[in-house]
Amino acid sequence: MNAPQGEYAFAKHLNAWLRELGKPAPRWFAKWTPGFLASYLGVWCVIVIIALTMPNRFLQPAVATITVTLGVLGIWRFGWWFTHAIRAEYFRRVKWPPMRRAASALWAAGWRPRRVHIQMTTYYEEPAITRAVIGSILQQIRRERIPTSLWIGTGSAYDEMIIRDFVETHGADLPPGMAELTFVRQNQPGKRMAIGLILRGMARRGVDPDDLVIFMDGDAVFGGDVLEKTLSMFGADPELQALTTDEEVLCYGPRWIGAWLEMRFAQRRLAMQSHAVSGRVLTLTGRMSVFRARHIVDEKFIRTIEADHLDHWLWGRFRFLSGDDKSTWYHLLSRGAKMTYVPDATVYTIEVIKGSGLERMVQNFRRWSGNMLRNGARAIALGPRRMPFFIWWCVVDQRLAMWTMMVSPLLAIFATMLEPSYIWSVLIWLVASRLVLSTVLFSYARRPDLSWPFILYFNQFINAGVKIYMIFHLSKQKWSNRGNQSTGGGTGPRERFALFQLFTSVMAFVTVLALYSGVLPMP
User: Fold this and answer.
1) Which of 5, 100, 328, 357 lies deepest, with the highest CB count within 10 Å?
2) In 3D, which of 143, 128, 147 has the Cα closest to residue 8?
3) 79-85 contacts at long range (C-beta below 8 A, 24 or more positions apart)
4) pLDDT exceeds cutoff 80 at 130
5) Whole-prediction pTM value?
6) Each residue's pLDDT tens digit, 77-115
7) Distance from C-alpha of 149 to C-alpha of 294, rounded to nearest angstrom
8) How many beta carbons lie within 10 A of that of residue 320, not counting itself?
């Protein structure tokens, strides 16, 4: 959706949206309006009609080998995807309910943490967004009556004035010490340094090892009962060391970007619940995660945040620009810490898209994929003995998927060169298979969207391409937030060699598939 003009209109629209999202989401087929159901059935009718009227070219002699390969690859990839879906349903229906009941009973009996510390960084954020974020925090403190320290990392007086004025106005009714506000002005650039300065401030002031620390971003708004739903989990499970929450998204920008982000969050819900069955997650999301303080004030943890780096044979030692959430995750993962996902505690994420939506999409993929690849190699090196095997294999699969995703479209192109009408059979399969996957994702979304089958394939294809590029350019990082930072660029000898590696690897990949398909004659 397009952002309303003017700060007042933006704030009014934002508050209306937050009130709407605060209502219980419709469940299962209650979210399927008659119009959507008719469109959904119409798409299936078109698929069936085309499939029945078009000749089946899958088993033509010239392309039968390609079809078998695509079928085996599809069984593997879709089997893995539905394994996640089954595990997610198991978590949602079997494992999670007793966890929630135990935590809620403990909370009702009066258990509370001694103190909560909220660590948040902000950098020239929209004032309406900042007020909505701080307002949601104060509302939670007022509701739960838990002594809370707000640690705000800033880069200028601009954000500090907005936050201080809002807290003094809307938090005046809170008892002294209930909402302590501390600003930490960073003296070095980057979000990581801002977080590090906050954590060092916490360590100097002194925190109890069993205090709870919330990591959050300056554009993440708490849902109505986030503190109760998350903090109670630590009281009910003494072994739990960290957790992350559900997220909803509001996108101010092109409608297709909003649909893409909503689909991404639906995928996130499914994947997080699948991972949580194993007592781990694959990221402690920076938007909102909660930790026991004993890890937060540890010097190694703080240095991991401030100066996490990778030693690479080509790029040498380079520091990570973003991805602090992956660094905290790796630190706890390497120590065998138990983590989980809380599906009924929601944080609302506000995305303001300026400029090209496609460029922003690719930028996000570069940041997400780069963070995943930079941390994935060392997580794999820990081995399956340091973590549940399923989690270890998920990290391995992330590196395999970027190549396997490219096999199908390339083989389909080669098969079409041998049998021109083959492309229609492939298109029918692509639309039907992605519609099946999207149907599963609809149950994890607030509202279904028929653009998802097409966005899903586009998302997979672009993501795989970006990952392949990034695996050869791990030091190249760009972050449009916090001053549009970038690092690892240039046109020196190492950059040229990385491009040579990328080109030769991709050409070898394409050549092998071309030889296998018969498009190129075997030497």
Assistant:
1) 328
2) 128
3) 80/397, 81/437, 83/274, 84/270, 84/271, 84/274, 85/270, 85/274, 85/440
4) yes
5) 0.90
6) 999 999 999 999 999 999 999 999 999 999 999 999 999
7) 16
8) 24
